[in-house]
Amino acid sequence: MNIAVLGTGKVGSTLGARLTLRGHRVLYGSRTPTGPDRLDHRSAVTSSDLVVTALPGNDVLSVLNEIGDEALGDKILLDPSATIIPQTATEHTGGEVAVRIQTRFPRTRVVKTLNTMNFAIMVDPLTSVPAATVFVSGDDIAAKTVIIGLLGDLGWPDAGIIDLGGIDTAAATEQAGSLYFAIVRALGDTRFNLAVSR
Ligand SMILES: NC(=O)c1ccc[n+]([C@@H]2O[C@H](COP(=O)([O-])OP(=O)(O)OC[C@H]3O[C@@H](n4cnc5c(N)ncnc54)[C@H](OP(=O)(O)O)[C@@H]3O)[C@@H](O)[C@H]2O)c1
Fold it and tell me: Can you state the angle between helices 97-104 and 60-67, rounded to 10 degrees?
């Protein structure tokens, strides 16, 4: 697939590198477009079928607003973002990013996933922990099927993927940010995952 990864930080570069390794064509969207695969946000989106918002949660909507409805259209949008209080980088502010994106861009097919783990675990679910769960939320079934395929490319086994339902369920995983940081503080480590056992 042609994938636009918006943001070239930890999540963007980690997902972009792995998706490239798996044969996808990745174009990065950046505030500092400097090369053939590092474009301005709108150019990256226009040339791609799927968009990843690897951006600070509080900035996602303003970046998407600048890109505009026409460029985003009915593309699939994978949103792994979280809203973090910048001063502490530890507490979740409770903002529901994915629902706000879906409400603002009703044609765009938003899928929330990968937001309950550290960036390294996003592409290393099997070797780091014996059991790992990744949640998926989104209204469009076909878009979720595509995203579940991409999760497979990232190394996630089908058994570890839980489809929570519509995009409204993304709020549940976004609010789990506080739990994530509490675990980081307790363990002093980010190499863990949440796993649903039954
Ligand atoms: N790090 C993790 O382990 C982790 C885990 C789960 C979820 N998340 C979430 O995933 C998202 C990305 O996290 P990250 O760790 O990759 O963050 P990061 O390392 O800070 O990278 C974010 C990137 O977004 C762009 N950016 C920064 N400020 C911006 C602004 N004001 N407007 C537009 N673009 C801006 C920058 O790319 P350019 O300079 O190229 O524009 C920056 O490199 C966040 O929402 C985060 O909460 C992170």
Answer: 20
- Whether 180 is in the pocket of ligand 1, judged by its Cβ within 6 Å, is no
- For the chain, domains (ranges, CATH) are 2-187 (3.40.50.720)
The reported pLDDT for the residue numbered 93 is: 59
Helix (H, G, I), strand (E, B) or coil at 64: helix
DSSP label at residue 55: S
How many whole angstroms separate alpha carbon 65 and alpha carbon 39? 17
Q: Which of 10, 81, 190 to mutate to test the pocket of ligand 1 (most atoms within 8 A of CB)?
A: 10
Band of pLDDT at residue 127, cut at 50, 70 and 90: confident
pLDDT, residue 66, reads 98
Q: CA-CA distance, 145 to 151, in Å (whole number)?
A: 10
Q: What would the pLDDT profile of 69-101 be if each residue is shown by its tens digit? A: 999 999 999 999 998 765 555 555 556 899 999
> Does the CB atom of residue 60 touch ligand 1 within 6 A?
no
